[in-house]
Write a structure and sequence with these properties.
It contains two helices and 16 strands. The chain is mainly β. It folds into two domains: 75 residues, SH3 Domains (SH3 type barrels), CATH 2.30.30.40; 141 residues, Porin.
Length: 264
Amino acid sequence: MNVWAPRYLRATFQQGFFCASVGGVLAALLFLLAPVSAFAKEPQRVQIADPYIDVRTGPGRGYPVFHVVEQGAWVDVVKRKTQWIKIRTPRGRSGWVYRDQLARTLDETGSYVALQDLSQEDYFRRHGELAVMVGEIDGVTALTVNAGFAFTENLQADLSWTEAQSSLATTRLASIGIQHHMFPRWRLSPYILMGTGKVDISPRTVLVRPDNRSDRSVHAGLGLRLYLTRSFVFRTEYRNYVVLTNSNDNDEFEEWRAGFGVLF
């Protein structure tokens, strides 16, 4: 007991210290984040200048009108989503109004206010992305599933899986890399990419039965992204692959792909 008791007490103390440290870090984070919500930007207050506006239950014409705000009433602009604006009435009712209906509003001095479009920050925020793309690898149709995460405005991590099947072989590519967006605030935004991965080739011919190949690869390329909406993009890419084989000569092939991605 004299030998193991100190070790047991020391291990218990270390576990307790670790738990207390984690709790302290979480408490500090909550303390630091609390002022952010406490001092959030106040909603913009505007007065309706048109005869009336229709308030819908959601951001779209397919949602029903549940309330009408008449001329002269004051409303708070809560947030914006594409061409729809969420407002809050003096009675506390919240709903969505088409932006054109608020094209003419008044501020507290009686002057007309032009509500601005979505800021670029709404488009170019940090986000995750899922995309499906169709392309061609050395004349063979290929399907790609792509996932990414933009951890800065210019840099995005990239993970993709590609499969191309022909009558001779099935080629599978798994790659990880990074994209650099030179002009991220352009709606038509070019980028460069590079990365590494693995290429698996499984022959399908019945005349010759060579062994399956699995080699490392590196790639570089160019891409172009078009923002169709706030959360929907069109992408096209060109990639050049170098397959690092065990022989003296490395293999090289090209890939073109295009498809659509969803930002979230």
